[in-house]
Amino acid sequence: MAEDDAFRKGLSIAARVGVELVAATVIGAGLGYGLDRWLGTAPWFLIVGVFLGTTAGLLGIIRLVKSM
Asked: Contact at 8 Å (CB) between 61 and 21?
């Protein structure tokens, strides 16, 4: 029973890490894409948005790991 709980906890953490990284990157890319369409500066804000989103996702993962 304890092994099953540990497996589920590990699976939950892995899913959270994956979702957090992907969601932050997609949100950053979406905001960058929207700014590019609004300002006509493609692809500069998209590139910046992807980098900032990925960075935000990685920082969230680092915070998660430190809290463990």
From this structure: yes
Question: Is the N-terminal amide bond of 43 cis, ω within 30° of 0?
Answer: yes
pTM of the model: 0.89
Tens of pLDDT, residues 13-67? 999 999 999 999 999 999 999 999 999 999 999 999 999 999 999 999 999 999 9
Which among 54, 19, 10 has a CA at the least distance from the CA of 46? 54
pLDDT of residue 2 exceeding 90, the answer is no
- Based on C-alpha coordinates, what's the Rg of the chain? 16
DSSP per position, 6-60: HHHHHHHHHHHHHHHHHHHHHHHHHHHHHHHHHHT-TTHHHHHHHHHHHHHHHHH
CA quadruple 52, 54, 56, 59: dihedral sign: negative
